[in-house]
Amino acid sequence: MPSPQFLRRPIAASVLMLATTTALTSFIPTGARAQTTQAQPKSSFSISAGSLSDALVSFSAQSHIQVTSQTPTLTGHKTPGLHGQFTSSEALARLLQGSGLSYQPVGERAFQIIPASKAANITLGPVKVGGLVNTHEAAIGAGVGYVAKYSSASTKTDTPLTEIPNSIYVITKDQMVDQQSQTVQEVLRYMPGIYSESTGTASWGSGSVRSQGGGDFTQRGFASTQYVDGLLSNTQASGEPAFLDRVEALNGPSSVMYGQSGAGGLISMQLKKPTDTPLHNVTLGFGNWGRYESTIDLSDKITKSGNLKYRIAAIGVTQGTQTDHIDYHRVGVLPSIKWDIDNKTSLTLLGMYMYTPGDGSGNYYPLYGSLLSGKNGYIPRSRFLGDPQYNISGNKEAKFEYQFFHKFNKYLEFQQNFSYDNSRRFFNDTFGSGLATDGQTYSIYGWKGNLGGNTSQIEKTVALDSRLIANFNTGPVSQTLLIGVDYRHIDEEWGLTYDRKAMTINIWDPIVSSHPDYSAGSTDTLASYTYPSKLDQVGVYFQDQIKIKKLTITAGGREDWYDYDYHSTYSRQSVTLGNIALEPLASPINQNSHAFTWRAGFTYNLDFGLTPYFSFSKSFNPQYGSILADGSAAQPLTGNQLEAGLKYIIPHTNVFLTAAAYHIKENHVLESSPDVVGKEIDGGTATSKGVELSAHANVTKDLRITASYSFNDMRYTRSNNTVNRYDIYGNSLGKVPLQGKYLNAYPRNMVNMFVDYTLPRDVFHGLGVNFGIRYIGFTYADTANSFKVPAHTLFDVGAHYDFSNILPSLSGLKISLAMSNLTNERYVGSCSTNQCYYGQARRVYGNISYNW
């Protein structure tokens, strides 16, 4: 995993440029020179003496001028610094003074650093100064420090965040490295509007977001959806932080661009791909619970010209967890190749394989003894309440992807993404069911995959997204028009064998006897289920981004068609009858329909950096395969959102502040049936309204901060249903109206802050420290609001040391240490009707990394 020191080396790929020379020059004719029609204004600069690389980072941030360079150009160069009022040309000339380097313009708002000898025949003129150049690298790259100012996730065009009329929060690679995030849940823990660790360590090994179901976290109270490189992905391995350069949270409906997704939003991830500058990194990691990890990340050119580049990332990890008998193991590799066919055409090929033979299961406990003190106090977090002989959980996943880009001319370009995912999930497991009124007898049931080799799920996903993007001007109006079509096909099969006879244990003194053998004919209690399904989805969408001076209007629409076939069967082994009874579990289901969604909004960029915005957007998400208690298929989720907010980039700084207020309604939200155990009903309409505040700041090159506050009021606002209220043992106390109740497992208030500071180098010689605080407000254990899960406050600390500040020969060597939940607070992440999930105990992780 690349370290921050590496990213500060001479014009590393995502630090100084946020773009390559090729991308920049694509905006102007070949051989074009800088604009000379207007003089450069002067700007205020305050740049310290020292590394030329660091100085140019500061120059780019303070002037809003992009700078690019070839890899070896800046190596070893120093600068005397700069303070005062200068034009961009004057400032750059002073920074390069005595270095033997010069510069040339590449477009209206960018410079390239070159050897002075190559600049002899170049006539330099004034360069028009404006915002950062709109480049693809800036929109999908790793970001600079904790701040990213461009995104392609929301609009599928490379757009400044201040011209997008909805909330987007970007987690950069630097932030992931500083926090030593080991799962995507941990990556997202400091973002507003997202509750990412509701099931504590139950998902420790998954490292991923489960698409469509939302998995272990929610956005603005609703289930999230996962997209990787712009395409839906159900593979868990896509969420491995060692394979990611960037994670973006799109809060609020995103169906116009992506089709079927929930009203709360989606998570967009960017896998690592070849870089424009060589990258060589290896790490060795270690931690408590017996964690050992190794990663590699290599990228370089294949051909001398550099038009063919490669990158390969790999990881191997093994460890236990805070819960006995739950272990986590993983090995994976991510190779990719980028071919710049010419200066207008590129093709990126990517493959991935991940094998997770064990990722842990069984972090569940009854309310009595976890949320509430039991007869003997609280159940220890280390206690395993399942059956150690039936605790196998893992997966095998493979992925192929390509990204194609062609620019016909300065007005029109074509982009296409394709991916194929193949995953096999396997387990032989137990789950908890209920605690007896004696306060100690706990029932557990066993189940396993029956598709061969303990396989419980086989899923194959094909996704294709093609789009044309046109850029043109009409007088004072500039437009970016996008027209696209995407297609998705999913083949999925579930196969489970279920032991219908409960086994009981004493939660205070668990002595577990194994379940019966699952071989055929051994018991009358075994039941088998199969769930094959197929999904085809097609979407046609359009979007127009209209810019009139400081005003940007974004509007778009989409039509979706889907066809879903689902069929399930049930069989039960009967020893006494000597046969197997087969019968349909439910009638075959075919769901097919279509829906239109749209959004519209605007931003207005004021001169002093403040941008107010407003938007309306709709969402649409079929609930595939969900059968209600009355036997009917669940209706698709449909939602809409009103959002208004402010985005503010403080002038002459790298500080980005946001504030958003929203109101979301989603219809046909499902809820547990009060009458039929294990079935669901249409809960009606849920409303989520709240406020989000965030700050991402590179205060200096040594001080970086991210902070957020979220308030969310989420309730059932239109429902004629009732739900059961429960006692501490999970027994019903009678029915209560659902309307007006808060949705469970989502906090009303969350406050987060993380600060990383490298101490003065002349005194501490490369030592850096960081500190984080996370406050999670109370949640409800169920939708009847029977019990509250208390609020909790967690502290994270860390340190890192860069050895290049001691000896130049140690350049590239760095050690890091991170500790989450410093005080080892025992807390509950969330609860359902009759079980709770403990949050993560104190976790210590460190690594040694080397870049060359």
TrEMBL record:
Signal peptide start-end:
1-34
Q: Where in the cell is it found?
A: Cell outer membrane
Residue intervals of the Secretin/TonB short N-terminal domain: 55-116
What is the protein name for this chain?
Answer: TonB-dependent siderophore receptor
Q: Which PANTHER family match?
A: FERRICHROME IRON RECEPTOR-RELATED, FERRICHROME OUTER MEMBRANE TRANSPORTER_PHAGE RECEPTOR
Fetch the PROSITE patterns from UniProt: TONB_DEPENDENT_REC_3 (PS52016)
**CDD domains according to UniProt:** ligand_gated_channel (cd01347)
How does the entry describe its membrane topology? Multi-pass membrane protein
Which lineage? Bacteria, Pseudomonadati, Pseudomonadota, Alphaproteobacteria, Acetobacterales
Give the NCBIfam families listed for this entry: TonB-siderophor (TIGR01783)
Q: Which organism is it from?
A: Acetobacter conturbans
Positions in coiled-coil regions? none
Q: Which Pfam families match?
A: Plug, STN, TonB_dep_Rec_b-barrel
Q: Which family does it belong to?
A: Belongs to the TonB-dependent receptor family.
> What are the alphabetically sorted keywords of the record?
Cell outer membrane, Ion transport, Iron, Iron transport, Membrane, Receptor, Signal, TonB box, Transmembrane, Transmembrane beta strand, Transport
Primary location class: membrane
Say which domain of life the source belongs to.
Bacteria
